[in-house]
Design goal:
The complex is a heterodimer of chains A (419) and B (82).
Chain A (H helix, E strand, L loop, with lengths): L2 E11 L3 H11 L5 E5 L19 H11 L4 E4 L2 E7 L2 E5 L4 E11 L3 E3 L12 E2 L1 H9 L8 E7 L2 H11 L3 E7 L3 H11 L3 H13 L4 E4 L2 E6 L6 E6 L2 E6 L2 E6 L1 E3 L2 H5 L4 E2 L2 E2 L12 E3 L9 H15 L3 H5 L2 H17 L15 E3 L4 E2 H4 L5 H8 L11 H9 L15 H4 L4
Parallel strand pairs in A: 1-2, 1-6, 2-3, 6-19, 8-15, 9-10, 9-15, 10-11
Antiparallel strand pairs in A: 4-5, 5-6, 7-16, 12-13, 13-14, 17-18, 20-21
Helix pairs in contact in A: 1-2, 1-8, 3-4, 5-10, 8-10
Chain B lengths: L3 E6 L2 E6 L4 H7 L6 E2 L5 E2 L12 E4 L2 E5 L10 E3 L3
Parallel strand pairs in B: 1-7
Antiparallel strand pairs in B: 1-2, 3-4, 5-6, 5-7
The chains are: A alpha/beta (419), B mainly beta (82).
């Protein structure tokens, strides 16, 4: 496989809000910056497909800033290895990119947390963000019956989006308790922007059943979803639907930071006040430093971009806003913390590892992630434990082992290029 | 109307707006089982963002393509059920 070399002062992995904000700050200082992302276009998950038609004035401002810049974007490319410090390899459609950098900013974002329950592997049971992504990229959801379930503010945003696209949203099931959500609402009042966003969402979702302290316990159907059972303490709902959009809040994407040996604590990349990781010249911004939402990702991205280009005074001016957004992040994670009842969702024959079809029963006979991998092949399939690893951490408390290259499955040819 | 692309999903012509993802085209064709798991279960997309590998299909004879990260091109031959 052929290689091409790309040299940049600053390399950014991830073209979501954090990566884009960082890139703007870097390029405005006159440095050369390259942004690489595995999606076909920029925007990350939250701004997917919004480059030409942004959904908010804020997104529009950022896309305008990158449109008028000299940032180099490489899309549809997956970073899979670090052969030496200052060099990353990425697999592109037809070749391998050799990315040389002076400074690196990791903005790898987050994914939904999926928890196994009977029937969760049926087609048409998918992530909340997962279904939204499909609709954003061309699937017409109009007229379909959808149940949105799991946890986190994403559920409301997805339900609102699907409803506006003509879906019949039958219910939103949020596992967090009403009391937790009430406290969350009170705290939001001190953050005017977020309170008005939340109020607007709720108004748009008027008429959609919002069930709190409620979660899916089973999905049924033959070769695809036909109905779902939701449970609230003392109550059950059996709902016939076409799609179940279900995700339990978000978890950071840590595979690349781990490969680079960045220090990780409590499931997030550790950074100093200038967003630098434990590895010199490697910065991290956005959801990978801990789930905190769009505004936190943007301000962390800006700080990382400024810090990586030596503009520390300017970076410090943004600390106040970052503190405020981090406070909101902590509130989010407290509010949407998973209830322990969700640990007893899987039945013995419920599949936990979807790549290798490893069921819950066989995992009960082992006592660690390593043992699970060796004895059951849990986490050994193409997703490399990205889905089941998060689930078993919640179910059994097992921590994932250190990652090894390649961090994504790649073609043999990509591994065998001369170095 | 945005420009259209035409792809073939399991032998059936599907018209999609330009820029659509292959996964969206498959669902628009009414197919919900994208692939079979190692024990033969029907599976479809989960994460929608290239992480879970559940949306793998064969595109222009190349197997194991993630349909949620591949944009539809005119004439693309998409086959599910691998």
């Amino acid at each position: 496989m052929s290689r091409r070399a790309i040299d940049s002062d600053v390399l950014i992995v991830g073209a979501g809000p954090a990566g884009l904000a960082a890139a703007c700050r870097v390029v405005e200082s006159g440095r050369e910056v390259t942004v690489i992302d595995d999606n076909p276009d920029v925007g990350g998950q939250i701004w997917r497909g919004e480059k030409e038609k942004p959904s908010s004035p804020e997104a529009g401002v950022w896309f305008e800033r990158i449109r008028n810049s000299t940032i180099t974007f490489i899309n549809g490319a997956r970073v899979f290895q670090q052969p030496q410090s200052g060099l990353l390899l990425a697999e592109c459609e037809n070749d391998v990119c050799e990315l040389n950098y002076q400074k690196l900013i990791l903005a790898t974002g987050a994914r939904e947390r999926f928890l196994p329950f009977p029937g969760w592997t049926l087609p048409n049971v998918m992530g909340a963000g997962g279904l939204q992504a499909l609709v954003k990229t061309g699937f017409a959801i109009a007229g379909k019956k959808v149940v949105v379930a799991g946890s986190g503010p994403l559920l409301l945003a997805v339900a609102d989006y699907l409803k506006r696209k003509g879906a019949d949203v039958l219910a939103i099931a949020e596992q967090a308790s009403r009391a937790n959500l009430f406290r969350f609402g009170l705290q939001l009042i001190s953050q005017r922007g977020k309170a008005s966003q939340a109020y607007k969402l709720r108004r748009q979702l008027r008429g959609v059943k919002y069930l709190t302290g409620c979660w899916p316990v089973a999905a049924y159907g033959v070769d695809k979803l036909e109905h779902v059972i939701l449970q609230q303490p003392g109550r059950r709902f059996d709902i016939v639907c076409d799609y179940l959009a279900c995700g339990f809040h978000l978890v950071p994407n840590l595979e690349l930071p781990e490969l680079l040996d960045c220090k990780i604590e409590d499931g997030a990349v550790t950074v100093d006040e200038l967003q630098q990781t434990s590895i010199e010249n490697v910065y991290c911004a956005g959801e990978s430093t801990g789930i905190g939402g769009l505004e936190l990702s943007l301000v962390e991205g800006e700080i990382a971009g400024l810090a990586a280009t030596g503009q520390t005074t300017k970076a410090r001016e943004l600390f106040g806003n970052r503190d405020k957004q981090r406070k909101f992040g902590r509130l989010l994670n407290r509010t949407f913390a998973l209830r322990k009842e969700l640990r007893s969702l899987p039945a013995g024959d419920t599949i936990v590892c979807r790549c290798e079809d490893v069921c819950f029963e066989s995992l009960r006979t082992v006592s660690s992630w390593r043992e699970a991998k060796l004895h059951t092949r849990c986490g050994m399939g193409p997703c490399q434990g990205r889905i089941c690893g998060t689930a078993v951490e919640f179910l059994f408390g097992w921590k994932a082992e250190s990652v090894r290259p390649p961090v994504f499955p790649v073609r043999v040819g990509s591994m065998s290029v001369e170095s | 109307m945005p420009d259209e692309v035409v792809v073939v999903v399991d032998g059936v012509l599907v018209r999609m707006p330009e820029g659509s993802m292959v996964s969206a085209a498959i669902m628009s064709a009414g197919v919900s089982s994208f692939r079979r798991s190692v024990t033969g279960e029907a599976r479809g997309p989960l994460c929608g963002m290239g992480i879970c590998f559940e949306c793998r299909v064969t595109i222009d004879l190349q197997s194991h393509c993630r349909s949620c990260q591949t944009i539809c091109q005119n004439g693309m031959d998409i086959r599910t059920g691998e």
